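A reminder from the course coordinator: this example appears on the midterm review sheet, so study it carefully.

Given structure:
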């Protein structure tokens, strides 16, 4: 998996260097500040791709004594750096656009410049879609962030072409600075979104999508003997996923039976996800006076109360640090 990540990041890095020269050559031909904004963002692409390559190398390293959960979190840091660089580029572009508003440039060869920017935007768009797709498949925030960045670059490039075309046909060179400022605001917003997502990962904020997938799998594989699952935690470390949960089983199960049921839960989760995954299951005994009311085990020989309901497992109740008989008590209040 790490080899696939490294391959796509290397492709992104090489193309970002080529397109950087294409865009700066376009600026050299046209002298348009709006095209300069696109070229400056390409510098960010090169820096981000190089840092992403190193972060993927680190994230692929095995666990060690100092990093018992692996090195996957470096991908969050990488995405945050990329977002911060995008924002810095956006603010610099605004400064340059305001300066050129008062000291305008003489624009030249706009048609040739538009053609070069269009070519660069098309390449970035195709690569961005692929990186975003591979990032989701491999659970790599670095690839996904790079893909979104390149797709943002594609959008700005083609909107830029429209703006430069308007300047070409109207002769209103002042639109160059206005267009640059509008692009910069969009770039800054895109960078902020990446930084926000990076901080969320570094702070172990709940990943709703990862949690939803885990709940769906457990509901699909649910066994009658799995009386309850609670105190579930799903954490994403780059491409690695860690799942902790408490599984309530019949109190009379022997140790081998408990081990077998725990192994079924672990296998059900590990076989459904791409990427590295660790599952830690803590087994709890049932409490007959309380768990019988929602226990699904029809063959139970020690049942003290009839089953009254079936607990629907959701992301909300499975993450609570309590067994589900509390929910039944709340419903009866």
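Designed residues:
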């Amino acid at each position: 998996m790490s080899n696939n990540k490294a391959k796509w990041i290397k492709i992104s890095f090489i193309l970002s260097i080529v397109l950087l020269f294409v865009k700066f050559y376009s600026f050299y031909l046209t002298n348009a500040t709006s095209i300069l904004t696109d070229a400056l963002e390409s510098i960010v692409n090169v820096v981000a791709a190089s840092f992403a390559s190193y972060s993927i190398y680190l994230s692929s390293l095995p666990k060690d004594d100092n990093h018992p959960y692996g090195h996957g979190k470096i991908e969050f840091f990488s995405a945050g750096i990329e977002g911060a660089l995008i924002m810095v580029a956006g603010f610099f572009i605004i400064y340059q656009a305001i300066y050129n508003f008062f000291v305008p440039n003489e624009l030249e060869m706009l048609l040739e410049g538009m053609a070069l920017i269009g070519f660069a935007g098309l390449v970035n768009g195709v690569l961005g879609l692929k990186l975003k797709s591979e990032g989701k498949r491999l659970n790599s925030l670095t690839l996904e962030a790079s893909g979104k960045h390149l797709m943002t670059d594609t959008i700005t490039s083609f909107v830029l072409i429209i703006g430069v075309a308007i300047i070409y046909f109207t002769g209103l060179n002042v639109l160059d600075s206005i267009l640059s400022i509008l692009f910069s605001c969009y770039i800054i917003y895109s960078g902020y979104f990446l930084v926000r997502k990076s901080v969320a990962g570094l702070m172990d904020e709940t990943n709703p999508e990862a949690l939803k997938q885990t709940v769906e799998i457990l509901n699909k594989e649910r066994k009658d003997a799995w009386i309850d699952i609670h105190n579930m935690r799903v954490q994403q470390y780059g491409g690695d996923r860690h799942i902790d949960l408490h599984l309530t089983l019949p109190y009379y199960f022997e140790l081998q039976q408990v081990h077998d049921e725990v192994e079924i839960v672990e296998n059900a989760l590990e076989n459904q996800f791409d990427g590295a995954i660790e599952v830690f299951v803590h087994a709890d005994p049932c409490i007959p006076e309380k768990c019988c009311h929602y226990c699904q085990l029809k063959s139970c020989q020690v049942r003290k109360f009839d089953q009254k309901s079936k607990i629907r497992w959701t992301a909300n109740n499975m993450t609570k640090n309590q067994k589900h008989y509390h929910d039944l008590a709340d419903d009866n209040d």
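Residues 329-333 have pLDDT under 50 and may be disordered. The longest strand covers residues 228-237.
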